[in-house]
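Quick start: what a row looks like.
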Amino acid sequence: MHKTFLKSLLTLSALLSGFIALQAADPLPVDQAFPQEVAVQDQHISLKISMRDDYYLYKHAFGFDINGDPAAVGAVDFPPAIEAYDEFVGDTEIYAEDLELLIPIRNTQATASDFIFTYNFQGCLTDSICYPPTTRNVVLDAGGGVSYVGTPIPEDEKSVAGEIEAAFANAPHGLDASDAVPDSNTSATPGETGDLVDLFGGGTHSQDEILPVDKAFQLTLDVTDDGYLNANWFAEPGYYLYQNKLTFESNNPEVVLGQPLFPKAKLKDDEIFGETPVYFGMANIRIPIIERPASATKLTLIANYQGCKEDSICYPPSVTEVEVNLPAGTAAKSGEYQDTYTVIPAEAEHESLAKRFASKNLLLSALLAFGFGVLLTFTPCVLPMVPILSGIITGGDEKTVSTRKAFNLSVIYVLSMALVFTLAGIITAKLGQNLTAAFQHPAVIIAFALIFLVLALSMFGLFEIQMPASVQTKLAEMSNKQESGHYLSAAIMGFLSALIVGPCVTPPLSALLLVIAESGDAVKGGVSLFALALGMGFPLIIFGTSMGKALPHAGAWMEHVKNFFGLLMLGLAVWMLERILPPSATLLLWSLLALLSAVFAGLFKPLTTSSGLIQQIFKGLGLLALLYSGLLLVGSLTGAKDPLRPLNNIALGSASIEHRELPFKRIKSQDDLQRELRMAASQNKSVFLDFYADWCIACKEMEKYTFEKASVQNALAGWVLLQADVTPNDDIDKALQQSLNIPGPPAMLFFDNTGKEISAMRLYGFKPESEFLAHLKRMPK
């Protein structure tokens, strides 16, 4: 017991010493943190790496080759390392003191003369940063000689490394080294240890500095003996990568790659993509090599990625290429590669459930689904089944079943039916998780909009979507054979009824399933479908309990319910098309939908003396819909963008509406910018340049909440207002951004009246009205 306590105390003491040292100095450049000495000794290459206090190296990150050939070196006999557990890498080993490795030279012909020795390594600073994987190339003389990389460490600066190693080596069982040694993925995560480093001046970059995309996210590649590519992504502190934006492909069609295997990611509530998995720090993606010809000795991996800087900008989708040598025989064994790596779930299930059940959106979704379920009960295909279903539950004899038992049977029946819908929601959400990344593609959006259109036409009665009559008849015969009046029979018949009723309400049910599939949220999917089924079953419970006395009779009014759902489907189609269509086109579609709503409300049907109050109310609502349709049409023709403010661009009398856009002049290229700057300088005017993209949420927030404010527009009066729309992200857009060192939108640049940029005035990310105005006042006069 005392030994355990002393060991733990020693570990904590070593950590405290390291943390105090961390506060005293910034992280060193990698070659100063890990100076290297390389020399040839007989048939070996000697690699000596010195270690400063609180720095350590990953054992698994080492790699070696001679003249680009990994097969030219033999197996390295590594010295014992400190065992540690890394949350993302798993069980791993580290070195915390000076290290010497002897790398056998297998191909002596390659070293007969001067040769290039390449080695890879990766290290970290305790409770601070983890360096990206580092590669060094050293030209060696076969006859001897020593090459130095970095500055050797004085002996008096290497006093604590041995104590740290001893502390971990003797740590009590169950004490993870990750408690003391920072995880490479979590060290840069805001709100964790990285914030302490920032507080005391640590880190390699200023918090306000926006790195180029290839500096913010770096990729290294190596090949394992078991036939995998290790794609090692490194995100600088304060930056993160989207997991679902990482894709890989081979430049050689003969080299077939398997499905990438991703490590555990962190769920982040992202303003662009919602709750999505992201990577901070290091992320090692394993890509199996399924097939390769013997002639393929090299491979260029094409990697697509996208990431963001915390509370700042999001980079546009980017691509990088990395070349790697393929040793002979490199290929994952058929049938084994998918089982050799386990993808860790993004979050523990109980934590995910707790977070999602605490969400207000979940409750709102459940309430809306319940309401829709109640309305679905009164569609013509469901309501006529109510007396049939009631007969199944009660056996057609109202006297033999008490009210209480009828209630219990009805509840069991409904819950059984709800279970089927719940499973459908969970399965759909799970399958739909893989659709999120592709859901922004125009072809996918158009396809789903067409599906909603088909569903709407079905609700309007143009055709029916349902199971074949023979299948429905068979299911009905099975349900009729069940014995009435028993709870088990009620449960079985509820299950069978879900199969019968489900296809009958396919249009609204399918629409809800599509929405759930897009979100990929299994909990929300299950709860929403459960609530929908409860809504459908609620009137059935009333009917079963009251023997049908408490429900309204079927009538023409049920057609209005179908029409309502049809309009809802069309609204969902327009809502999806908003992502790819210009604003004027979507306003026109909303106008047509409002007009159709007026038609279904009975606006153009004359009132008679027998018309009741409900008809008069619907006619009034139809008139309002018609007026709104006209406003939307005017807004579409005048260039408005917001359906809630269709008259945004129209001046009423002498007063103009405040919500108008800044009169930006669009530019595309560097030549366009230089031309406008020269023209502005000739007029002695300052220039404001805004970088915008349709996929940039912060850009749209700037337009809606900042640029449309009268105070901002007055402050920018007299300026030349330019805007670069980089939505296509083509070569011209990239060239313009690179020329100005702009990593991505939103970015706002300020130029004086001579055409010179005031670099200190640059802004990135969304800025509210007050902050933007305060910043504008700092512009030099």
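That is the whole record. The longest helix spans residues 403-432. The CA atoms of residues 387 and 468 lie 23 Å apart.
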